[in-house]
Please model this.
Amino acid sequence: MILLVMIYFYLTSVPHTFDMTELARGNAVFDYRMICWFALFIGFAIKVPIFPFHTWLPDAHVEAPTAISVILAGILLKMGTYGLLRVNYTILPDVTFSLSQFLAVFGMVNIIYGALCAMAQKDLKRLVAYSSISHMGYVILGISSFTDEGVSGGVLQMFNHGIITAMLFLLVGVLYDRARHREIDGFGGIASVAPNYAVVAFLAFFAALGLPGLNSFISEALVLLGAFQKHRLITALSATGVIITAAYCLWTLQRIFLGKLNERYAALPDMNLRETISLVPLGLLVVILGVYPHPVLNVIKPTVRFINSLVLGASP
Model:
């Protein structure tokens, strides 16, 4: 669908071009703008993924090796939201403006539905996969607001989510390499035998639940502040996702790391040097961007303001 719309843009632009900056100038008049927008939206929604196009993601993560899960969650999911901002917002800004509430509802559903599904999982990797669906909902909600805070928060959430899910999938891989399974209820008390692993895991899960002082808190707070200016009820309902996320993150930590040690894992090795080198830099980014996010926000802001000006300038 994305390809067909791109070909249509090429054939109807004068002179014919695939240059997105030229297409965004508004020199070409496209018929069927609403159809084009929805075709692009569905294509990018599958990539994000946005409910109800999300069903491929948990299965893909469960079947994929750790490295592929890290690339998929850390980088490739963002191609969907990048596409929405880069193509839908800049080339079809008038349609985008008219569908802001439509986008906000999908963001809300992603946040709440993804978090509830994550809470129901028994497989640790599937839980992290559903948490990705929930966290990408904040991006959709933020970019639907057309405010500097909301869109900046959404773009920052793309970056932060990449760091956090990369950590979480690496942590799942570390545990699977030792135990050869990912059943959450099959562990228990392993913080006592793998303290270094437990510290990094607690940091990653605390970041995922949006703990103040860690990077996800900044982006989610900006999203909610920005979206509340435009979609008050939807944002208030979306904020309940924060509670559900905290519930499943803390419940997961309690079942795996705390309580009585499962005797099967009394000799469970702690993280080795290779695993530590992979995880510690990501953990440092989580803390640094949680305390001082301005280096990333300063890069984001000019583009966000430009995209907002295009969309708001196309409003009736």
About this structure: DSSP finds 16 helices and no strands in the chain. The mean pLDDT is 91.
